[in-house]
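SEQUENCE-TO-STRUCTURE ENTRY
===========================

Backbone structure tokens: a row of integers, each naming the local backbone shape at its residue.

Task: work out the structure tokens from the sequence, keeping to the layout shown below.
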Amino acid sequence: QVQLVESGGGLVRAGSSLRLSCVASAWTISAACVGWFRQAPGEKEREFVATTSSGGVENYADSVKGRFTIIRDNAKNTVYLQMNSLKPEDTAVYYCASDSRIDCYGARNPSTYDYWGQGTQVSVSS
């Protein structure tokens, strides 16, 4: 049974950094597309944050570009989301998702993923 487990969330002040982890079991991320999404309070939809393809191609939402970095560690079967210069508007539950699509084609759409983690809360105070 495939499992994705996120961790690393917390309550921080604006300008701080956090590193989120997404550890996969029964699933090899080296051959997978992995994405990070977030869902802010009161929002119905999960918002695209970043993806990393099996070929190492990264893609970011404009709102996080230059501040967030998605990092793939195939040896640990883990994908990280390094978040710097956090803003209050980054407050959300952060989820990782994965599937086997080639080149993360269409990966900004959360409804297209096969597997999801349970989420980790990130709260940024002003």
In short: The chain has a mean pLDDT of 96. DSSP finds no helices and eleven strands in the chain. The CA atoms of residues 15 and 85 lie 4 Å apart.
